[in-house]
Amino acid sequence: MQPLPQALPAPGPGGPRPAAPLLALLLLLALRGSAAAPAGSEGPQGSAAAPEGPQDSAWQRDSELPHGLLQRAARAALHFFNFRAGSPSALRGLAAVQQGRAWINSKKECQVDLEFTTEHYNPEEGEERLGKCSAQVFFKNEKPRPTINVTCTRFMEKSKRQQEDYLLYKHMKQLKDPLDVISIPDSHGHIDPSLRPIWDLAFLGSSYVMWEKTTQFLHYYMAQLSSVKQWKTDEDAIDFDYTVLLHEFSTQEIIPCRIHLVWHPSKPLKVKYHCQGPQAPEEASGIEEGSAAAPTTGLTNY
Amino acid sequence: MQGARTGGWGPGLPAVDRWTLLVCSFILAAALGQMNFTGDQVLRILAQNEMQLSLLRDLEGLKPQKVDFWRGPARPSLPVDMRVPFSELKDVKDYLESHGLAYSVMIKDIQVLLDQEREAMAKSRRLERSTSSFSYSSYHTLEEIYSWIDSFVTEHADLVSKIQIGHSFENRSILVLKFSTGGSERQAIWIDTGIHSREWITHATGIWTAKQIVSDYGRDYILTSLLNTMDIFLEIVSNPDGFAFTHSMNRLWRKNKSNQPGIACIGVDLNRNWRSGFGGNGSKDNPCSETYHGPYPHSEPEVSAVANFITAHGNIKALISIHSYSQMLMYPYGHSLEPISNQEELYNLAKRAVQALYEVHGIKYLYGSISTTLYMASGITVDWAYDSGIKYSFSFELRDTGRYGFLLPATQIIPTAQETWMAIRTILKHILRHPY
């Protein structure tokens, strides 16, 4: 990753001090010999571009990108993209971030504009095709559910994608009851090819959850599909109730989430979920059992 | 058999032994032909409050008995495990659901589990006596690895020996392989894998690397020169208790298995327990957290064993600590953004090592200091090593970047080990040329 020039400090806790950073910016630009320009005019490649990003003067270009911010923004954008596309056969994974810029305001909200490449989540043998996406990701101050605008180059012909989805759908309707399956992948990372569609569908539902939970500091991976609670295919759609284990990277925590989705190819995906909250440490007054303790959030039936 | 009423975290058998004891008793009972557990399930319930706990206790009090607690209702947020005979399943699940008690199926069919355990136990008696039939492209259990170590040391006794440097919290041996062509008090390289038990690709890479070292000696000029003047220490299972737990109960377990009286959660993050920036922002003092640093530096036997060994040795010149996942090669510090004095040298070395890695299978690694490349992490091995005077302190994060994460398919073991070896070899070459 190329380090971006250290220019403006982020706004301090005392609130915005427009004068000082603006002065610093002007000084910096003057030193660089370029004409004074609004913040955000220089991309990481060094080429001047028309100012993008928020026009509101409360925003300042954040050149000291918090480490990994671009990657987190790209992953959030992809989770959102995958969820919105609702297509288990056309899932995309992050290949590489190409460039990005970030702006931060006095409320510590953060907007990231970026471009990145993607690859097919389930590549065919020898398939190397890369897609391209550009996205605007708006993180609220440490609150989840970033707002996302994302467009990607067409990866697969629409008709092909629909065809693959229908094949997947038919395959899933014929699957023997997978309630026996305890985990996918198994401990050795193996996914039985016949169960692959279940993983893909589970990942699609998890994409919704992972998008919603991502903040500028927290980002998630789907570690394992840990149980299938219900798998109904007698109706038109696939009704899938399952638990996944999400891995949050910066805290290294494993978060179980119960997800219930309803999927039919070419219809919008419906997802409900509940994730387990963090476990609180408890001290017993002795080693006897049964002492009253503060309740912690846990799995609830919904 | 009446399930033992095992509530809370009081003194007694550690969880592993308790579980084994229960399973063994079941096997005994089944073997005597007296009991059949087909279709019986073990359910795990997380009660949220005292009221729910008492609902569970009511279940146990029913006559005739419908359930049998393997881990009884103790306090909210501690899981309750109960065996439910097949004939009672519907009634019990209805009871739980109607009272809003969330449960998950821990064991879908006890009889199946017992049959598997019995098979495994029979198999372990036939454990391989040589390493030629050991599969380097599979993941193995602790027993299999320890057995392989013994065979490996026997087969390559001219070059390799086994050292026990201590015991884990649950009293398992902590083993280190020493590669040496002789001499005494030679300078040495230290490599460790498996400090975080769920990172299975690291143990597998360690095992393959051991094999690579013995086969490269006499064939590869760098490795041969190195071993002619220096020793290599390789600790493959740095967290044996955690590793055993990833096989028996929780594949995604990270920490060790230590527990303190009165504390509900177990385990300390062994890579936050070192005496360097201990307790800083890149760790947590919450025992339930995955990055809990423990009560004080080197409180954990798995850490103190290594720290004491390295300190007593006094002549370790490089320390390479191997983790997964993220595809990164990094150097200190993790606890601070402040660059180390040897930053430039280590940066350039990392760059070359990563290039050598890339040339094997085209896998891209990031590189840099831990705090700027990965995240802030306090009390980590490599920071301690560097502060102890070990200039060449590196940390690897192996494949992948999240697609499979910790559950990396076994088919990627050998490619990962091959490319990692080329990076390690680059580092070894540099050390040979830059003694200190």
UniProtKB/TrEMBL annotation, chain A:
Domain Cystatin LXN-type: 61-160, 180-283
GO cellular component terms attached to this protein's record: extracellular space
Domain of life: Eukaryota
Pfam families: LXN (PF06907)
PROSITE patterns: CYSTATIN_LXN
Coiled-coil segments on the chain, per record: none
Signal sequence segment: 1-36
UniProt cross-references to InterPro entries, sorted A to Z: CYSTATIN_LXN (IPR049897), Cystatin_sf (IPR046350), Latexin (IPR009684)
Protein known as: Retinoic acid receptor responder 1
Annotated source species: Myotis myotis (Greater mouse-eared bat)
Automatic annotation (TrEMBL), chain B:
Single Gene Ontology BP annotation: proteolysis
One Pfam match: Propep_M14
Reaction(s) catalysed by this chain's protein: leukotriene C4 + H2O = leukotriene F4 + glycine; Release of a C-terminal amino acid, but little or no action with -Asp, -Glu, -Arg, -Lys or -Pro
Single GO MF descriptor: zinc ion binding
Cited InterPro entries: CARBOXYPEPT_ZN_2, CPA_M14_CPD, M14A-like_propep, M14A_act_pep, Peptidase_M14
UniProt xrefs under SMART domains: Zn_pept
Keyword flag Phosphoprotein: no
GO CC aspect terms: extracellular space
Primary localisation category: secreted
Location(s), subcellular: Secreted
EC class name: hydrolase
Cofactor(s) annotated in UniProt: Zn(2+)
Boundaries of every Peptidase M14 domain copy: 138-431
EC number per UniProt: 3.4.17.1
Catalytic residues (positions): E397 (proton donor/acceptor)
Keyword entries, A-Z: Carboxypeptidase, Disulfide bond, Hydrolase, Metal-binding, Metalloprotease, Protease, Secreted, Signal, Zinc
Protein's job: Carboxypeptidase that catalyzes the release of a C-terminal amino acid, but has little or no action with -Asp, -Glu, -Arg, -Lys or -Pro. Catalyzes the conversion of leukotriene C4 to leukotriene F4 via the hydrolysis of an amide bond.
Protein name per its UniProtKB record: Carboxypeptidase A1
Organism: Myotis myotis (Greater mouse-eared bat)
